[in-house]
């Protein structure tokens, strides 16, 4: 009986160690985006991207631009992208002063058909009701972009670090998706966002 008990204990311990070691979590050295309160109605328009005659808006070049997100769950992680996205960079006197972007949720692609269909469903992106994810900047200060993110029908102000390039911007940060009321709970709250956009 003692040997059986010892064997069972060791088996449970081994399984527990395996499960803990197989849990995939976001990297700790990646910055978290700051997320503000929900923004609604006229407040959304007032805080949108400003523009004047001294500024020029340029469309991003899809051949030079890329967007990737990584979701994490027990024992797994998956990279994805959107095959259909667009955006602009606003410049003034050769300096980037603003940005906007939009991704079509039904164009999500992970390379795994069933997973793509799941992500398009109503417990995640809900592409039928929320066909686009949009971002419009409101400020760029000391390497930090602040703007309005409209995701899953909810608009919130977010801030995240960016690297300003000669002809674009790049970013790598974690976004907590819980404030955007997604139904699916079997993943880590934080999704890693990585992008480079160039004109």
Features:
alpha+beta; Lipocalin; 18% helix
How are the secondary structure elements laid out?
Blueprint: H1 2-22, E1 34-38, H2 41-46, E2 56-59, E3 66-73, E4 76-82, E5 85-92, E6 95-104, E7 108-109, H3 113-120, E8 132-141, E9 144-151, E10 154-161, E11 163-164, E12 168-176, E13 190-198
Antiparallel strand pairs: 1-10, 2-5, 3-4, 3-13, 4-7, 5-6, 6-8, 8-9, 9-10, 11-12, 12-13
* CATH structural fold name: Lipocalin
Number of helices, counting only DSSP H or I runs of 4 residues or more? 3
Q: How many domains in all?
A: 1
Question: What percentage of amino acids are in beta strands?
Answer: over 45%
Number-wise, the strands total 13
User: How large is the radius of gyration?
Assistant: 20 Å
How far apart the termini lie comes to: 72 Å
Which stretches are poorly predicted, pLDDT < 50 over at least 5 residues?
8-23
Q: Helices and strands, in N-to-C order?
A: HEHEEEEEEHEEEEEE
**Helical coverage, percent range:** 10-25%
Main sheet? 7 strands, antiparallel
Walkthrough of the structure:
- The chain has 199 residues and is an alpha+beta fold.
- It has one domain: Lipid/polyisoprenoid-binding, YceI-like (Lipocalin, Beta Barrel).
- It is built from three helices and 13 strands; from the N terminus they run αβαββββββαββββββ.
- It has helices at 2-22, 41-46, 113-120, and strands spanning 34-38, 56-59, 66-73, 76-82, 85-92, 95-104, 108-109, 132-141, 144-151, 154-161, 163-164, 168-176, 190-198.
- The strands form two sheets. A seven-stranded antiparallel beta sheet has the order 1-10-9-8-6-5-2, with no helix packed on it. A six-stranded antiparallel beta sheet has the order 7-4-3-13-12-11, with helices on one face.
- A hairpin with a 2-residue loop joins strand 9 and strand 10.
- The protein starts with a helix and ends with a strand.
